[in-house]
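Hi R.,

As promised, here are both runs. First protein below:
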Amino acid sequence: MQQTIDTGILEQKLSVIINSLSYLMPEAVLTAFLLLLLVVDMIAGRKGAYWLISISLLGFLVHLFMLFRQWEILSMLQQPILLLEMLRLDGIGIFFKGIFSLSGIFAVLLNLHYQNATAESEGESSHKLGEFYVVLYGLLLGASLMVMSINLLMLYMAIEIVSICSYILTNFNFDKKSAEAGIKYLLFGGVASGLMLYGISLVYGFSGTLLLEDPSLISGLSQIPVIILTPTLLLIAAGLLFKVSAVPFHIWAPDVYEGGPTPVIALFSVVPKIAGIAVLLRFAAFFDVFEGQMPMIDWRWVLGVIAIITIVVGNFAALSQSNAKRMMAYSSIAHSGFLLVGVIAYSEFGTESIMFYAAIYLLMNFAAFLLIKMISRETGYEYIEDYKGLGNELPMLGIFLLVVMISLTGLPPTAGFTAKLFIFSALWQTYQASGSTIMLLLLLIGLFNTVVSLFYYLKIPYYMFFKQKEEGVLELKGYKNNYRKINTADNLMVFVLVIPLLILFFKANWLMELIKFIHF
């Protein structure tokens, strides 16, 4: 009799899992194309690069279409919980998955011109290209699962998928610097992963559940003294803070950004960070609903202090950087702090502000890394001092880079200004409602650091347009003051990334209305 009951329960759970799969078609698409790329890479041989690139782009386009279909299903089902309470499907998750898909498309396009493999690549290069796209799909699949996770074990598994793929992608330059960056990333990631897993095990021991929305989780944790509960939650937060490169889990970022391939670091600056912020939003919702039911210190104070330190360390460390990639690494750390500000100002408007910021951040970072790499390819230099006078030789690149740097600073007339304005406005609204001192401190320090960031972001355009070129800089690469040397594909991609930064300053309501429509 007992065996019959157990079999019935098993069949019921399997039925629930199978039914859930119909709501996870975007994730199924990523998995299917990952396997397809793996097969094509094995059988295509010397001429496989063209097929790998085409299949990769097609997969992301199909993924975007399936996200639209997934949103249509969501509008009828009211946020279903899937896979035995492992995942939650909602508008926020769908929006961020769209950001990931666009990041994948930009990473593939950016990779076209800067990897050793092309459509005519041979042997080992073609094989490396196939591995690159397979691991890229794996990273985006893990990030998609992260933003939907409501079970701590599922969240940990998703983070590990993203982490393992990240470690592999970091080494895709296949040189000493890239290998060193990959090892550092792995070591720091292993420590953060271990801390998070230990925190999850403590939560399960205290409450007997790992589901964020389970009432027994609250009842179990409410019995734990604050001196034990607070460090436990901080251990779990360690894994997420590592993903968003927040202080003190930021040490890996500069070396990885300098040593990794440009398409990879552009991807790292967006996807893991945004996925981590999305998970922190779920935790913020959890604390907001059950606020006062657990004996712990104010989570906004803890996260606020981390955000302040992250913004200050990122901005002031960037001031002293001479390498453009390392400067962008510390810039990325500072932006993590601003994204954390949106989490602290948790509200409907705060969430929509983070979604807006994420979309603009995608454009800004990919544009910045693309332009830095284009200049490096034309001149052979990556240090900011070597950019002297390049504005006269590469005027269009200089102008585009100026627009991107102004946007990263958060100044008009760019969408970067609008993104920071929304974040600070959400923070001010929450401060007025709560009167919390940490929010006022965040607002003041955030505004001050926006001014600080102006000094290092505009250093590149300053060197390009106001410093005299050293003799022979461009001649080393055979450059003859001919902008047409930069191919049409690069120009088109720059336009696609930079022009929206100007348009969305004047028409920010276009993107915000889309966010509200998806968020509902």
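And here is the second one, sequence first, then its structure tokens:
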Amino acid sequence: MVGSIQAPCDANIIRATPAFPVALTQKRKRLTLAATILGSSMAFIDGSVVNIALPAIQQALHADAASTQWIVNGYLLLLGALVLVGGSAADLYGRRRIFLVGVGLFTAASIACALSPDITVLVVSRAVQGVGAALLTPASLAMLGATFDEHERSHAIGIWAGAGALTMAAGPLLGGWLVDQVSWRAIFLLNVPLAVAAAGLAAGFACESRDPEAKSLDLSGAVTIAIGLAALTRGLGAIPASGFHDKTVLGALGVGVAFLAAFVAIEARSGERAMMPLSFYRSRNFSGTNTLTLLLYFAFGGALYYLPFGLIRLGGYSATEAGAALLPLALILGFGASFAGRFADRFGPRLPLTIGPIILAGGLAMLAFVDLRESYWIGVFPAICVMAVGMTMTVPPLTSTVMASVGEARAGIASGVNNAIARVAGLLAVAAFGAVLFASFSQHLVGLPPARANEALNMVLAGQAGVAEGVRVAFDRALQTVMMVAAFCAMLGGIAGALSIRPISPESARSNT
């Protein structure tokens, strides 16, 4: 990390010098790494465990489908809109300080989630969690960059990423067990002991650091994109209850598009302060990989949101069994990344960025034709494994290609933009696939008015008794449609990779930016 310098911790702020003037002890480095792993694990676990608990939450709080979507969307909205600002704030005000603020905010919001008396309080608390995650996640990586020198940094980040993959793997299984044996509220209290340990280690052993060249925050851009995404999500989420031609829906979608256009204009004028420098898009590889990212995570995020509802409501899975059903996905992702990286090094990024999304599309298409009531091992398991192989082939070369496309000096910003786009894709997918689910569900219940169809869909999702077999079959068909749309989007991602990704030299990367 350019400009990040080591110094004794009692000096508080690390000042700019060409090298690391004081070497930290290995013990202090290891404990700083542990602090970042524990802090980031809260966000990783939270992101993987909440989907498993959604059916139970919807039933317990008597929420409709649109409100339930906002349990995920509120979190992703603030995380996606603010993660780049969080990274800038860490560089400007101190990485350890922002990390601790993020951990504290995330923990307080987690406790509020666990104590929520109704869906409104839960959604607001989840949004605050998103703000905390937007601060602590980039700050944790920045702390690693400031703690480890260039010879140790890659290894440290590899350990951080590997630990994140393992926590993501354990999250759904542990969360499902807590939902079945304790309560859905317990999944949010998982964060409290992790937060106490992370904050204690960071405060006691991590050194403070800043980037002396850091610019002021692009708050206008962050606020504008947050409003734009919120309006788009609100409009898409309201379609099941209000219909496609409702004035409220059209107005919300119009406001969303207008604010996103305003965001582009603000970024064009912000120059070096921009949270998303538009000059990056002169790079064909940067534009192509981010288009692929949008389509890939749109397909993947939307499918994973609705799959647990299918497993639990149609397949009769318990929450624990639904969490275990997704375990192969995280394990293959976690342990296959190094192989995928070597494959990309040997054959170049274009091949895996073409084949990977297409394999993912195949896995999603398999899910569309699986009978969720049949044996897991001959139905869901093969499809999950194919999806995992596709994602594993895609993610490592996707990240490295994004960073290489703009040159080493600005690779961190490019990676942050790509990460934000992945979060936004998941946010939009939940709302858009909700509209697809409702449209297909209504089509299979011929003659039922939209309001009655929406009521019937909410009954299925909430697991209410007395649901007619015809309604259950309509939900099954609608879920198949969602998986096929997801497969189509993943396929488009593979096409984008084939058409846009090219070998790039460091000289051409610098000239693009």
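A quick note on the second one: The domain at 282-513 is CATH 1.20.1250.20 (Growth Hormone; Chain: A;). Let me know what you think.

Best,
J.
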